[in-house]
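DATA SHEET
Item: assembly model
Revision: 1
Owner: S.N.
Input lines:
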Amino acid sequence: MKVLFATSELAPWVKTGGLGDVAGSLPAALRAQGIDVRVLVPAYPALVQAFPDAVEIARPHWLGGLLPTPGLKQAAMPDGTPLLLLDYPHYFDRPGNPYLGPEGRDWLDNHLRFGLLSRVAAWIGSEASTLDWQPDVIHCNDWQTGLAPAYLQFLPGRLAKSLLTVHNLAFQGLFDHASLFELGLPDASWNLNGVEYYGYLSFLKAGLQLADAISTVSPSYAREIQTDAEGMGMAGLLRHRAARLSGILNGIDTEAWNPATDHHLPHHYGPRRLEEKAVNKARLQEEVGLEVRDDLPLLAVVSRLTEQKGLDLLLQITPQALELPAQLVILGSGDRAMEHAFASLAHRHPGQCAVRIGFDEGFAHRIEAGADIFLMPSRFEPCGLNQMYSLRYGTPPVVRATGGLADTVVDAADQKHGNGFVFGPPTAAALLDAAQRATTAWRDPALWRRLQKHGMARDSSWATAARHYADLYRSL
Ligand code: ADP
């Protein structure tokens, strides 16, 4: 079984969220299942730098519309997975985030940049390809590669099957009608059963409509997105394709996220040396300027600061949460107004609330290890990774019952399996109530150890997910 994994992000080199992590881990796990996987990703500066010896193996041409002729370079990732770099500096040799220009706005030519990525994925899966390797399946991810199944529709000869995995339905890749011509798509694709979405061209809708199978990153999210309330305008289409839609829970990188070996941590610990987690707490409190106290629970957030993550609810209850009493540490970036609101909270509660705006991988690890309780009050959460990191680090999470959070966190009320705290309505009151239950439980050492141990014993490795994906590929 040969699979082309097409992605716009690839951890650890280029990552804005969960997609980058998945792309960085799943291919190796698939190879361990005997699948011959190659990863296709744009040659962003970080990748050009990381793979200076990449060799050009093809120049796909006549791609249609205004699409240029790029180079295709091959390299090998450290784990041995072959990497195909889509080399077109005019599109991809740009600083920063893969999607946004310096002012924080989308690049104006994103349709061409990710149209080219989708088109080259389809080229590799078609008879036009000059590579000596033909995939059976193209595994597309999110809107950025959602157009590949549309291109495959209009190519002649033997073609690869396609799977589209939705990591976040909120990003739909919407562009105006004129882009149809620029992308080299035929007029015949402009209809309800093609790429059109209410007068726009939507990369995501095209993929949902035309891929041979659809998956998303947790079973709960697969059900939720078929409801009008959570389907982000795609629910009708997803219900229509329900027989082709499944949910496969993400794993995590259990080597990078292992408290017994994590090189970001001041002190290592494990399920049998849990009391030593306290060293990380004290060092974290020092690092962020909180009072070094072991008699207060330390609550934590590592997140994009957006409404999706429900952090506006946390803003509303922070004063009461601090009076539980507790301390709070936050690492995140995103919505400017939210960044300011959190920064001013920290200013008003020195020693008790610390906020760092930015993206800092090492600091995220030290927070997971040093905090007592992790907060994730997401309005929706396709899978979520941080709650799984928290479980593994003995930091029971407080989560809303949605998507992958509902599939991974079991409320403490379940004595046999409880590993965290789950609340229902997306309201400040429900979040405060759950945070209070958590801080109360923290004061009961026997109960707390049990929750921590249940969480740390959970299997979050990629092997299980890879087996499900392998079955799905075979079904195609
Ligand atoms: P999403 O993909 O919706 O942002 P996930 O929980 O699936 O949410 O994945 C987020 C990933 O990004 C996690 O690996 C998390 O640790 C990381 N992350 C988010 N914000 C930050 C930050 N400010 N600093 C470091 N890592 C972050």
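QC remark: The chain has two domains: 2-251+463-475, 274-457.
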